[in-house]
Write a structure and sequence with these properties.
about 180 residues; 6-stranded mixed β-sheet; two-stranded antiparallel sheet; alpha+beta; globular; tt1808, chain A
Length: about 180
């Protein structure tokens, strides 16, 4: 079987040419175009809750929801939520990249295995300092900190307690629907 791998430039040209529809839910993962899971009710609710809970950080961070994040020359992902280094004007003429991220959040209703096995290692490789994967099936949050390039030096799974980012404390129970 022959596989065709694409660069970030190829991926963007396909979108500009209409080969990839504007509303296509796809990501470019190490050169492969991959379909993303549809957003369900629990997923949408959890994401909206996270936006509300993290909104006080606007000013300290740029809140980006389901927008592109470039992780390398062959990888562009669309995480559910990213807190980016401000000011937002730094992204006027370019897409945010891994080193711009302060926090990446993935909400997993049906995509937990993919998020943990594929995307989290890509975030580590790109140097993203903190990743939360909200596991809606088991009502817990996987927290990853201290990227090493090969993975994360600190990992924990929380069912209660608090998440903390940029001095803001977020109760885990409030993140879960």
């Amino acid at each position: 079987m022959t596989r065709y791998l694409f660069s970030l430039e190829d991926f963007h040209r396909m979108a500009e040419a209409g080969i990839l529809p504007e509303d296509a839910r796809v990501e470019l993962l190490e050169g492969e175009i991959v379909t993303m899971s549809p957003v369900g009710k629990k997923h949408a609710y959890a994401l909206n809750t996270l936006v509300d809970l993290l909104a006080p950080l606007v000013g300290k961070a740029v809140l980006s929801v389901q927008n592109p994040l470039v992780l390398g020359p062959t990888t562009e992902v669309y995480p559910d939520l990213v807190l980016l280094t401000p000011p937002r004007t730094r992204y006027r003429n370019r897409l945010p990249e891994g080193p711009d991220a302060l926090l990446v959040v993935e909400v997993a209703e049906t995509s937990l295995e993919h998020d943990l096995g594929v995307k989290v290692p890509l975030y580590a490789k790109a140097g993203v300092p903190e990743v939360w994967v909200v596991d809606l099936a088991r009502n817990r949050v996987h927290v990853f900190r201290k990227p090493t390039g090969e993975g994360f030096g600190h990992q924990e799974v929380l069912e209660e307690g608090e998440l903390e980012i940029l001095g803001l404390k977020v109760p885990v129970r409030e993140v879960l629907p």
